[in-house]
Amino acid sequence: MGKQLKSNIVGDMMRGAQIVKAISDALRDRSVGDEYLLRVLREGSDLPGKIADLLMEGEDKPARLILTPTGTVKVKPTEKLIACEFFTKENPSVAISYLSESFINWFLGKTEVRVKGEVNLRYHTLAKPSVDGPIIAELGGETKAETTLAEIVELMMMQAHRKSDALLANGYANIFYVRNAVGVCAPWSWLGSAAGWRVDACSVAGPGAWCAGHRVFSRDS
Questions:
Q1: Which parts of the chain sit beneath pLDDT 50?
Q2: pTM for the complete prediction?
Q3: Residues in Cβ contact with 131 at an 8 Å cutoff, skipping those fewer than 6 apart
Q4: Rounded-to-integer distance, Cα 67 and Cα 129, Å
Q5: Which of 81, 122, 164, 174 could cysteine-pair with 150, CB 3.0–4.6 Å?
Q6: What pLDDT does 221 receive?
Q7: DSSP calls for 6-66
Q8: Rounded distance, CA 154 to CA 104, Å?
């Protein structure tokens, strides 16, 4: 056993003994013997947790994380994407059932030229409802959060050819942050007898919160 490990163990034991002595002294001050403390511990009471809660009262408690890391996916977007040619209900490559007016106005005039080759994307699950600002902050800021239409297109194509299941297809949204400070969501939806992607866009400054269970994509590095 290394010297550092031995030192850590001894230090933990000494701190533990000090804590137990302090509790025992406090019980004696209240005319309660050590036997009471031993009985409580033997009965499996969450005494340590209750003591921790009491000590944390009035302190700044750590904030619960909004995002739960879920996985990564590698994509190689097309060298040039003309949005209006791909995002159409007549696209034979993928089933697109709906394009919102905001998506049409903000994105269909866009052309993207690939700068990098392969890109590694990370995806997360929303652990609790949140608006976009805190999500972007937890992703590491706008640079880390920003993705591209071409990367979304590649994920849709990979899913269509069963090469990836990174995109949710259960009615929950897949959230991307694309240049012009908008969030693009593409949840799977059934419309009558035909299934297809519903592509929508909304401003990150909007007041609406995303629900827990949605998936958020960002840069991996």
A1: 5-6, 181, 190-193
A2: 0.68
A3: 206, 207, 208, 209, 210
A4: 10
A5: 81
A6: 63
A7: HHHHHHHHHHHHHHHHHHHHHHHHTT--HHHHHHHHHTT--HHHHHHHHHHTTS-PPPPPS
A8: 19
